[in-house]
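Milestone M4 deliverable, item 7.
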Amino acid sequence: MLATKTLTADAFKKYQAGDVETMTRFVFAVPAFTKRARFGYITSVTGQVTIGQASGDRFTGGNSFESTDGNLFVASILNDHAFAVEYCDFRLTSFEARLANLNLDGGIQNVDINVPATVPDNCSAKFRTFSGGSWKQVAEVPEDPNAVATETDEVFGNGLTATYDFQVVLSGNQWVMPVLDLGNSEATVFRSDDDFHHIGIVRDVPGATVWTKVTARVRIAGYDAARHTLDAWIQHGATLATQKLKDGAPTVTPVPGNNAVDVEWTFTVDPTGDKYQLHVTGETNNIAFPLTIIQIFSAVED
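Output delivered:
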């Protein structure tokens, strides 16, 4: 069953031969597509309804079946229902439609597109933004499993541009084209934050412990020294009012088997109270490559 449609009595028209405007039309809410093959239709009515017949030189070559109870059908090979199938004949099989611009104060990193669509076989709808002097594809319906995905930073650069031209490219053939319900669609633009500030919990050091150093270690996934900047310090003392900066540049150690690194700092302290708090800050110069913190650890040494 390709599709069904129910009409009320007031939708029926009295057909006059040769006048297509007097035909009763069954319009499907969603287009029904068929390949080159045989198909038929069934009408079921209540009340007195007369259906036009085609015969003789107007006979289309089909068979007409009639039933009074829906179980037993009587066939006729000499008559057929008088009907017409309306179809499209597209003169333009590729079309670029400009959409409302994508806008987000502060910059765009990516976009989620949600659009009801009917896309027949051998058709596509490709959404694109204009970036870096050319149109870049951000989504395709249906998705092409063999296509090479466009990296996010190729489309939106460093994520600092607030407005992009936006379009959809519709492609099909003479008989079918994609249909998008733009009235019920939405595009949501977003971006990640470009920095972070981790404030650790207050660590109490046992009173009998003699400690002069604090070691802090942060594990980061996807670390990129060219894009990522990190810093750390500790607050210590009875009221955490004393700030101690790091002793020097951190040690960066790759983590085997994991696309991550351990970044480690050392702080030399002369504590006036048996407590401290670790602060770690980070920033990326490209929000398409955010900082991803896996683990933060600290310990005291004598």
